[in-house]
Amino acid sequence: MDVVGPRANGEIMALAKQASADWVFGDPAREQWREMRKKQGEELQGEALRLCGVDASGNTPSSCNVGYGDTDLPATGNADTLLEHTVAAADKVPAESVDLIVAQAIDALTLSPVDLAPITETVANAADTEAAHDLLARENAMYYGLGVALAYADSDLRERVSELREASHERTAALTRVLGPVEGAGEEAPVPAAGYEFADGYNEPANAEEAAQLVKTMQSDLVAQWRYAAAHAESAAWREDAIRLAAHAQWV
């Protein structure tokens, strides 16, 4: 069975080995980064084992070796480099593993303020364009909902709402660049509606406590939507942008 049994996925293991190198050889002063990369390497090893499946006895086949051997990679120590590796690997790993590697890139970027300046390229893929339009509409709705919450907010929540609205404005500006004029598209980026109705599961607040809960729920849902968009991107350009935008939404 060792000759013909399943082997650990090469792309997953390459990412795992780099994560391990970042942990072992990373800058000792960046303890949070190194510990995250250690955890991510273990997650990737676990994913490789999961992809191998189990034998009739319920055990992982012995042919599925997830050890690192004598591989000696230099540490990257850089979330932007991890983002590049992730975008390159996303089209090569099994589709069921994309969520994991994208989530790791997002989490790594959130260890520091997320720069949206690199987002400049107009997305051309039709499905990705639709996703970007949807996220822009969600950002517009989020901005409106934060304004509603602001009317009932105490001083702490007002500060939080101000931070979230500024961050949403930054993502909206980035999305406007992504959805910039495309020849023959005949579409314009959606603008905020004059008013919004609260969807099922949301209630207009009546006091500061309910306003705080509304803000928390809206923010959590928005982050989840951004993470989903990043994992389900079709083009490399939009995947990279969506990962940055998801990290930006999660960091604030």
From TrEMBL:
InterPro entries: DUF4439, Ferritin-like, Ferritin-like_SF
Every DUF4439 domain range: 132-246
Gene3D superfamilies membership: 1.20.1260.10
Any Pfam family the entry gives: DUF4439
Name of the protein in question: DUF4439 domain-containing protein
Record organism: Corynebacterium wankanglinii
Lineage: Bacteria, Bacillati, Actinomycetota, Actinomycetes, Mycobacteriales
